[in-house]
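Researcher: Predict the fold of NAD(P)/FAD-dependent oxidoreductase.
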Amino acid sequence: MAEAFDVVVVGAGAAGLMCAMTAGQRGRRVLVVEHANKPGKKILMSGGGRCNFTNIGTGPANFLSANPHYCKSALARYTPADFIALVERHGIAYHEKELGQLFCDESSKQVVRMLLDECGAAGVRIEIGCGIEDVRARDEGGFALRTARGTFHAESLVVASGGLSIPSMGASGFGYRLAQQFGHVVLPTRAGLVPLTLSGTHLERLQDLSGVSLPVEASCNGQSFRNFMLLTHRGLSGPSILQISSYWQPGDALRLDLLPGADAEAFLRAQRQARPAAELRTVLSEQLPKRFAQRLCEAWLPNRPMRQYGERELRDIAAQLHHWPVTASGTEGYRTAEVTLGGVDTRELSSATMESRRVPGLYFIGEVVDVTGWLGGYNFQWAWASGHAAGEVA
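Model: Structure tokens for NAD(P)/FAD-dependent oxidoreductase follow.
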């Protein structure tokens, strides 16, 4: 005998729990099914265990989507201030790290506990370790889910199963397959907010500098991010690289400004005048990590005493420092990616409610949808906003 609910939410992540508590607060009978062994796994690991739970500067411009207008409605109706008010009501201490990013002072466990407490207060039932075997639309309306814990019927079905990122946390393509089963288009997916890999000469020259970090401005396809870059034994990582990775695809030109905010040409001229006998690598070591500066001068730039450079050469060196070309060979893939780009096509979803235009009562929220945020709390804010939008009507 099937158990009946008003709403079944697939996935106990950020979007799913927000949707469940919001629907439950409306008096709806809500069931959350989660195939992993605990709720909120991605929340728990985020922000180094402190959960970068929102960004106070969140706006539509911080998201990638084939339809950039889609996220506007939900983001406007559930803002960072709304989530901060919830965090404060639960007495969770937090701080701003940089660029509007808010983190828990103590632990990401507090955010998961808050969401579970809200769900509990709203009468939401959560089934953990509950794999779904089959989903179908019922002739009389609504949906039937056959699971490891029996069959459940629901008027509304909310898919909050996430993307493909970090399969070790239980990520799978379930939500995409379900969308296609119900006739939805799924746009091509790829890893986002992910380290880039190098190969060949680039890797050989930089591999042994693994662990060296420096501020850069990374640019690709008209988008730029200024933050730290980290050299790894496989390529490049760090916030500036993770950010630009969402805009990069194989074959795209990627450029790094190694002295962001500085005037390299003026600096080199001044050094030539003040220290004519100093070598270029010595001069650059004062602006860049020493090992990195020395490698630049061994492999890419001509290293001589400053007095031996003419105007044109200094201009060329400055141009290279501000527009250093990098040929990335690929990314680290879903294994380390923080998000999945692409997903359920938003043209077939309501931007106000996240409901399918094809199947009444079917909703898609969070990362499974073709809306992907920048690094820094934006993806959580999309989870809260899209979850809230669906939870108000499902």
